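[User]
Um, tokens okay?
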Amino acid sequence: MLLPTASNLLNRAFSFSFSFSSPPLLLSPCFYYTRRIQTLKSTPPKALTAPATTTTTTTTNDAAAAPIMAKGGGGADHGEGDRYRDPSANPKVARLRELVSAGDATADGWEKCWDKGLTPWDLGRPTPVVPQLVQSGTLPKGRVLVPGCGLGYDVVAFASPGRFVVGLDISDTAIRKAKEWSSSLPNANFFTFMAEDFFIWQPTELFDLIFDYTFFCAIDPSMRSAWARKIRDILKPDGELITLIYVITDQQEGPPYNTTVADYEEVLSPVGFKALFIEDNEFAVGPRKGREKVGRWKRYKKLSSL
């Protein structure tokens, strides 16, 4: 499978969508961050430019992805029928689950998904909130980690002279493709890609910022405490974690697995993290609006109980 064209890379958006109807949750006031994020609504994100290539991949826009959404459409007001729609109604998600569960190892299953182009989580461009966060001026400088980076759009969007970014993925295919499309970009000296298992990987340096999206919800829930401990171990004591949270409930299987805000709190609080704020992701793509939360967490060493 060849890489997407530059146009497709920047404009294609295909996604899972999950419903969530509760109001924004503010766990701890962080007024500076909140004001900065709110002022970004009128600032459009800058697009990335990728090398022109050809592709045989089928592209899907937001309108075409809408049938995958829970019944009730794209508004924020959803009924009970919306909340319990299983993403496996999407044939690609059902097939993805088959491959992941049938693999000899977790890495084998994800590798097969990339080989077959079964990557419905892939937007084909940076997650919209990432360029907004970069432009806000509130992000820490230094080393950044994006686990489960896929083709690396977010990695490239974070990278700058003041911010070196490591994109990590368990799939060799994903990392190879990420390197191919991004190697000639102007900021290529400020990011790197590595094919590694997040849970056993040992970085040589700690990170100032970790960005988690479509990773927490993809790992088996039994691994979530290990995820939190790993985040703690590779993040600097005053580092920051940013999570984009899918709210998914009443599924029988995954990935993506059932995920709530409380699931993050349950594993992060014991290892010393406190939420600066958690609120609706106002920059979510069309089918995801009203169904995602953005959380910013600080690690406080003295709070850790493990």
Observations:
- Residues 87-116 form one domain.
- The first helix runs from residue 6 to 11.
- Confidence is low (pLDDT under 50) at residues 1-85.
- Residues 272 and 300 are 5 Å apart (CA to CA).
